[in-house]
């Protein structure tokens, strides 16, 4: 499932390439026809992410809310991509309009062929189209739930859990139910919200970190890696954690999320430098301490990495480091 950094990058791509433009909205698959009709031809005025959800606001005050879920992804096609990459605001923006510290590289990390396609989800890939004879806009491929099209950018959404047109009141209600997101709330305000929500819960901390009403944007990889970095057993009831342990988890999320937004990948071995850091960035297998390494020795203490299931999701931890 795409985690919070991916959705922030996607929202940044929309801010860079679609915000301020009238957008043709269609549903090639046919499952979003009514919503598409409500948004079609309207100017996209803003786009932002909170946790794993994206909200695009149009000039009739309706919002397009998208939750990618496990299988959802956006495919971007750009006409004259070398011109599109020349400018645009790609920095995360919070609900109060403050520009975030880290720039999302959603557009700049791509090449600049005449027509480029980029799949934006948990992993981002790009490829070069065939050249001058390429059709514009490209024909929909697969079950495209919604297509957003301007004169130079085409964004196709496939496989989302949620894709709906909602009112400002409905958008506010969804936002109210979401936990703090470091990009949106900031470090200090976010910590206050997280502490108030989480401190007295008996839920195991490994389950609580995946609860988007407690803290927004954390998925399976970040959950495993943050608990390892903090040395916390994932089965520990949250109420049994000291306040400084909860604060360490929040501060680590504030540290790791911007790295993911900037690089486009989940990087948790932040202690590496030089050649070791470069090798880690180039190899998915080397980016994490424990995630995906069940049965292998812990990189720190040598204990065999454990694997279990918690709330239907794989849970990795090191019984030697996490006590």
Secondary structural class: alpha+beta
CATH homologous superfamily assignment of the largest domain: MutM-like, N-terminal
Total domain modules: 2
Q: Unreliable segments (pLDDT under 50, ≥5 consecutive)?
A: 83-116, 127-133
CATH class of the largest domain: Alpha Beta
- Main sheet overview: 6 strands, antiparallel
* Rg calc: 20 Å
Question: Care to count the β-strands?
Answer: 12
What is the distance, rounded to the nearest whole angstrom, between the alpha carbons of the first and last residues? 28 Å
Kindly identify the CATH topology of the largest domain.
Answer: N-terminal domain of MutM-like DNA repair proteins
Could you tell me the mean pLDDT? 87
What general outline do the C-alpha atoms trace? globular
Strand content: 15-25%
| H/E element sequence | HEHEEEEHEEEEEHHHHHHHEE
Amount of helix: 25-40%
Strand order of the largest sheet: 1-8-9-5-6-7
The CATH architecture of the largest domain can be named as Alpha-Beta Barrel
Put simply, the count of helices is 10
């Amino acid at each position: 499932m795409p985690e919070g950094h991916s959705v922030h990058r996607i929202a940044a791509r929309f801010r860079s390439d679609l915000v301020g433009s009238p957008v043709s909205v269609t549903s090639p698959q046919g499952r979003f026809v009514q919503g598409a009709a409500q948004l079609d031809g309207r100017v996209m005025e803003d786009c932002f992410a909170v946790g794993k959800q994206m909200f695009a606001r149009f000039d009739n005050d309706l919002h397009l809310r998208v939750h990618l879920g496990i299988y959802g992804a956006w495919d971007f096609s750009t006409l004259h991509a070398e011109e599109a990459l020349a400018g645009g605001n790609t920095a995360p923006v919070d609900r109060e309009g403050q520009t975030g510290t880290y720039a999302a590289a959603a557009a700049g990390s791509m090449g600049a062929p005449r027509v480029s396609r980029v799949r934006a989800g948990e992993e981002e890939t790009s490829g070069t189209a065939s050249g001058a004879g390429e059709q514009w806009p490209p024909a929909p491929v697969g079950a495209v739930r919604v297509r957003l099209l301007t004169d130079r950018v085409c964004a196709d959404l496939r496989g989302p859990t949620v894709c709906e047109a909602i009112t400002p009141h409905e958008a506010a209600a969804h936002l109210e139910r979401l936990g703090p997101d470091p990009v949106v709330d900031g470090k200090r305000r976010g910590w206050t919200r997280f502490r108030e929500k989480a401190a007295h819960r008996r839920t195991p901390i490994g389950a609580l970190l995946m609860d988007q009403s407690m803290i927004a944007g954390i998925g399976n990889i970040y959950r495993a890696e943050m608990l390892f970095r903090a040395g916390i057993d994932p089965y520990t009831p949250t109420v049994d954690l000291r306040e400084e342990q909860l604060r360490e988890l929040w501060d680590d999320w504030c540290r790791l999320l911007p790295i993911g937004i900037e690089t486009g990948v989940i990087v948790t071995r932040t202690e590496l430098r030089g050649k070791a850091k470069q090798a880690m960035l180039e190899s998915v297998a080397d980016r994490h301490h424990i995630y995906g390494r069940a049965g292998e020795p812990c990189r720190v203490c040598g204990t065999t990495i454990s694997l279990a299931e918690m709330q239907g999701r794989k849970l990795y931890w090191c019984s030697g480091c996490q006590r």
